[in-house]
């Protein structure tokens, strides 16, 4: 993770308010990355731990903010919110992971989008257990093409 963040670090300074440099982790590691070459191991380790903790706090804040937005859309705007859980994909490897991803993310997503686009309230359970939209063959082609 540190090496990935290091690849976005600009030692000459720069703005952390736009683009990839705004991403969680980059601003939090600024002090560590600027000073690491000049520090003893103990101080370097302390700064690294501080950066990691700050990143965790900011990640939590972002998650809470996003949850607030989702709840607002659901409760105030009355949007129907769909949850896709791809956790099991990350427990698999290779082709098995690819198949699980396809089954858990793009297929249900296409059904949700098709439901939205065609404003249908008719649902059925698909072969993968997803309760989705019953769509015509021509709409099915559109749904498959989106993924």
From TrEMBL:
Gene Ontology MF terms: ATP binding; tRNA dimethylallyltransferase activity
Keywords, in A-Z order: ATP-binding, Cytokinin biosynthesis, Nucleotide-binding, Transferase
GO biological process, one term: tRNA modification
GO cellular component terms listed in the entry, alphabetical order: mitochondrion
PANTHER family on file: ADENYLATE ISOPENTENYLTRANSFERASE 3, CHLOROPLASTIC (PTHR11088:SF91), TRNA DIMETHYLALLYLTRANSFERASE (PTHR11088)
Family: Belongs to the IPP transferase family.
Full protein name: Putative transferase
Organism: Lupinus albus (White lupine)
């Amino acid at each position: 993770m540190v090496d990935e963040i290091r690849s976005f670090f600009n030692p000459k300074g720069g703005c952390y308010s736009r683009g990839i440099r705004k991403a969680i982790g980059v601003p939090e590691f600024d002090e560590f990355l600027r000073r690491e070459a000049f520090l003893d191991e103990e101080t370097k380790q302390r700064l690294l731990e501080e950066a990691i903790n700050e990143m965790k706090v900011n990640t939590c804040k972002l998650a809470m903010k996003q949850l607030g937005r989702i709840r607002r859309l659901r409760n105030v705007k009355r949007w129907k919110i769909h949850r896709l859980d791809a956790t099991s994909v990350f427990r698999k490897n290779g082709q098995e992971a690819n198949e699980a991803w396809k089954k858990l993310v793009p297929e249900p997503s296409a059904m949700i989008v098709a439901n939205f686009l065609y404003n249908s309230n008719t649902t059925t359970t698909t072969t993968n257990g997803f309760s989705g939209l019953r769509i015509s063959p021509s709409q099915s082609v559109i749904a498959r093409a989106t993924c």
